[in-house]
Amino acid sequence: MISLRSRAGKPDSPLAKAVDLARAVVLEVADPAEVGDHLGAYAEGERLVTHHFSCARPGYPGWYWSVTLTRAKRGKDITVNEVVLLPGDEAIVAPAWVPYKERLQPGDLSPGDLLPVEDEDVRLVPTYLVGDDPLDDPLDTDAKAQVRRVAEDLGLGRVRTLSREGLDMAAERWHDGDGGPDAPLAKSAPENCWSCGFLVRLSGSLSTRFGVCANGNANDDGRVVTFDHGCGAHSEVKLARKQQPLPMPDHVLDTITEDGLETL
């Protein structure tokens, strides 16, 4: 038996020696073939010792059986506190739970599904605080403030609009996605989207980096793309001479008459 020291000090001797009892407890909840070697005993506290046994149960590599024993002061009778199956450092365990809102991916919503936005969502701010586009500056500060006050009084426009955080999150997501510069399609493209005639530019602060593809023959049709994205459907792409299709030969005119067929 291997006795492991812990912060609680040396394991209680009678409890540390009760390996057979600990194994018998494990065998009450597991088949004999599922219980392996004794891995050691260590102190949990005063007269409180835990024994570990390797687990041979199929599907549980890296797990171990844990049995905790105790006894009263000056007592000889040993009491079983608990027996559990625990994961070790190399055990395969389920991934950490993630809230459903963080697990959602584009395309997960079905017709009729609702996804309400939290009141304190950092991506949104009240429209009257920043205007309909927080980074579009057609008016000076005083004029924009006046427009906001009027819109607030009359209840006009959208209730909330994108905040700086919301714009940055969208820009980062689009840049790192399939419409960004690192997509395999973009790396093999002959030209970038910024010079393509099918690019529809966005308005506001995102107009300096993003647009929407309007080429019905392209993979990104109707999707947001970065200016440094690209594909083979660029409006100015030209085929090299060796890539051009071979010209069709002239039609052959059949001049054989019925009399000629008889001589064949």
UniProtKB/TrEMBL annotation:
Cross-referenced Pfam families: DUF3027 (PF11228)
Protein name: DUF3027 domain-containing protein
